[in-house]
């Protein structure tokens, strides 16, 4: 993990990729899955953080592994319903997510399960102007950070709640360019950097 924010923050940032569970909403204990909108509980400050990113002109994209679909615990339609409900709640607070992408497959079944690049490719197909060099990946697990690292993005690890951290969290923390307690602090730093970069001199 970097000691200096300035040494890693890109001078041009256009897109922020966000993991979902543990970044946007409260993560359930390992092995449990959010299966309906009623189980999706946004973390404190998340709508405000997304609002800040929106107002700074940044594209906000959610990329999420949803292995529970492959395990038969819920359906892709359930995932889309969760995202639609969250989007509606965000819009009531003046915020929005530009796109949601998720992998419904089990391990070793596809090229879209993070850290593989398929979800990034889906985003580029919809938004051709996206580049890894002008993107950041914010997540709370090794697969999130490795996903960003392989593509050449800025990587930000969120510490989250200690009791809900996935195995490999310490490795993710060490590999990430930056580390913050929550999305609120990460968004504040990214937005301040954009403002600073835009000022003359």
Quick description:
With 201 residues, this protein is of the alpha/beta class. It has a 6-stranded parallel β-sheet, with helices on both faces. 34% of the residues lie in helices and 14% in strands.
Describe this structure in words.
With 201 residues, this protein is α/β, with parallel strands linked by helices. The chain is 34% helix and 14% strand. The protein is built from 6 helices and 6 strands. It has a 6-stranded parallel sheet, sandwiched between helices. Strand 2, helix 2 and strand 3 form a beta-alpha-beta unit. The longest helix has 17 residues. The two termini are 29 Å apart. The model has no long low-confidence stretch (mean pLDDT 91).
Topology (elements, then pairings):
Elements: E1 15-18, H1 46-55, E2 59-65, H2 76-92, E3 99-103, H3 118-126, E4 135-139, H4 142-151, E5 154-158, H5 169-175, E6 178-180, H6 183-198
Parallel strand pairs: 1-2, 1-4, 2-3, 4-5, 5-6
Helix pairs in contact: 1-6, 4-5
* Helical stretch tally: 6
Q: In whole angstroms, how far apart are the ends?
A: 29 Å
The average pLDDT score comes to 91
Q: Report the C-alpha radius of gyration, rounded.
A: 16 Å
Structural class: alpha/beta
Largest sheet: 6 strands, parallel
């Amino acid at each position: 993990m970097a000691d200096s924010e300035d040494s890693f923050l890109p001078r041009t940032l256009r897109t922020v990729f966000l993991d979902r569970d543990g970044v946007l909403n409260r993560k359930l204990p390992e092995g449990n899955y959010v299966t309906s909108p009623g189980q999706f509980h946004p973390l404190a400050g998340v709508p405000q953080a997304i609002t800040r990113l929106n107002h700074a002109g940044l594209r906000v994209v959610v990329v999420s592994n949803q292995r529970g679909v492959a395990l038969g615990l819920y359906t892709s339609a359930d995932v889309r319903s969760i995202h639609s409900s969250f989007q509606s709640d965000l819009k009531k607070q003046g915020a929005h997510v530009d796109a949601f992408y998720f992998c419904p497959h089990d391990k070793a079944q596809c090229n879209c399960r993070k850290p593989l690049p398929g979800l990034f490719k889906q985003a580029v197909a919809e938004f051709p102007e996206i580049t890894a060099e002008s993107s950041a990946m914010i997540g709370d697990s090794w697969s999130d950070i490795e996903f960003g690292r392989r593509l050449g993005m800025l990587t930000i690890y969120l510490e989250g709640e200690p009791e809900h951290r996935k195995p490999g969290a310490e490795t993710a923390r060490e590999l990430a360019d930056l580390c913050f307690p929550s999305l609120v602090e990460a968004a504040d730093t990214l937005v301040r950097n954009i403002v600073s970069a835009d000022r003359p001199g």
